[in-house]
């Protein structure tokens, strides 16, 4: 029997809705979620392809390349986390509820906690997507039209409403260049200096990348509205629970790590680091990825389609989601209870 169920796209922090088509609990496709206020039925290719992850679903616990029972995996995990130099990876993929549980777990056990937020920092007051559409000018740092297309759609609407679009792009092949009145390619500092005479209070600066932390300080000094766009769905939400570190700080923390616990993240894919130098990587993940491939112990967990919780999108709106399918796997909260014993 076919069913259509509402959920959220997990592929970036824009927070689009997506409908999943199920045939007897098996995912067979996606369908426009027309009433969702963020994307009104549209999804980009990344959003539609997010369900392809289910081709690489993890169904069994693995330790040292052998399938083991979940109980056996937890026995081994208990021994490993009793050792020194344990570091835990908190992720923008974690829901608010999971992130809070992971943070408490780290505090109770005195574990170091790594959290990466694309080096974009935390901004209390951010522009809304409607602010972009109504802005007299939009300043875009990073290829938002390519990497966050449903937010890019708001910039296109702003241009249709008469806004000027200025962009700072690394490549002249960037999609955002196609709708820009002016394209720059220097540092963020130079871009803002060059645009100083056209930046105004109602302008919006949308950015998904910076080259250096002092560029964030420069952005914070602007009178215009700001909208950082993170690569993971709930980075904005997790920033309200934990401080993020810079890439450099995280590499140093990894140097001092003997046991790395990863909760629903692919840190190996994200960081250029010799992860084989870490004695044990223990990963809790619904899907195979480069981190699970390097891990000594992998425990399957519920995916976002099988769990409930809350995510906060880039403009700071909390969106709740409910399970669209059943699972025998544990949630992150259940994993932490089991580790505690
Ligand atoms: S813009 Fe982001 S949230 Fe929206 S459909 Fe595309 S990947 Fe998903």
Query: How many β-strands, per DSSP?
Result: 17
What count of helical segments does DSSP give?
13
Give the class-level CATH name of the largest domain. Answer: Alpha Beta
Taken together, the total number of domains comes to 3
Weakly predicted, low-confidence segments: none
Mind describing the biggest β-sheet?
7 strands, mixed
Beta-strand portion reads 15-25%
Task: Give the C-alpha Rg.
Answer: 21 Å
Order of helices and strands: EEEHEEHEHEHEHHEEHEHEHHEHEHEEEH
* Net shape: globular
Bound molecules: iron/sulfur cluster
Helix amount: 25-40%
Oligomeric state of this protein: single chain
Helix/strand-derived category reads alpha/beta
Straight-line N-to-C gap: 40 Å
CATH-derived topology of the largest domain: Rossmann fold
CATH architecture of the largest domain: 3-Layer(aba) Sandwich
In what order do the strands lie side by side in the largest sheet?
Answer: 5-4-15-14-13-6-7
* Mean pLDDT across residues: 96
């Amino acid at each position: 029997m076919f069913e259509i169920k509402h959920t959220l796209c997990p592929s970036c922090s824009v927070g689009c809705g997506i409908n999943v088509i199920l045939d007897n609990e098996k995912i067979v496709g996606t369908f426009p979620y027309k009433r969702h206020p963020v994307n009104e039925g549209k999804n980009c290719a990344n959003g539609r392809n997010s369900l392809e992850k289910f081709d690489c679903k993890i169904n069994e616990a693995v330790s040292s390349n052998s399938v083991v029972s979940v109980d056996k995996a937890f026995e081994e995990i208990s021994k490993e986390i009793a050792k020194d130099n344990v570091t835990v990876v908190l992720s923008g993929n974690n829901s608010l509820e999971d992130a809070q549980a992971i943070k408490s777990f780290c505090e109770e056990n005195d574990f170091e906690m790594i959290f990466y937020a694309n080096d974009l920092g935390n901004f209390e007051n951010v522009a809304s997507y409607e602010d972009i559409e109504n802005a007299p000018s939009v300043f875009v740092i990073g290829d938002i039209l390519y990497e966050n297309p449903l937010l890019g759609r708001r910039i296109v609407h702003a241009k249709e409403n008469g806004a000027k679009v200025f962009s700072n792009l690394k490549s002249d092949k960037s999609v955002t260049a196609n709708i820009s009145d002016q394209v720059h390619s220097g540092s963020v500092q130079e871009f803002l200096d060059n645009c100083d005479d056209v930046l105004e209070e109602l302008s919006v600066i949308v950015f998904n990348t910076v080259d250096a932390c002092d560029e964030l300080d420069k952005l914070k000094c602007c009178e215009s509205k700001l909208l950082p766009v993170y690569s993971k769905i709930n980075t904005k939400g997790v920033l309200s629970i934990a401080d993020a570190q810079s890439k450099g700080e995280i590499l140093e923390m990894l140097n001092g790590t003997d046991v790395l616990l990863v909760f629903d993240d692919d840190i190996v894919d994200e960081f250029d680091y010799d992860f084989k130098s870490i004695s044990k990587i223990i990963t809790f993940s619904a899907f195979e990825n480069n981190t699970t491939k390097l891990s000594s112990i992998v425990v399957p967990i519920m995916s976002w389609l099988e769990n409930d919780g809350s995510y906060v999108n880039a403009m700071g709106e909390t969106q709740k989601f409910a399970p669209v399918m059943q699972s025998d796997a544990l949630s992150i909260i259940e994993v932490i209870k089991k580790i505690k014993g």
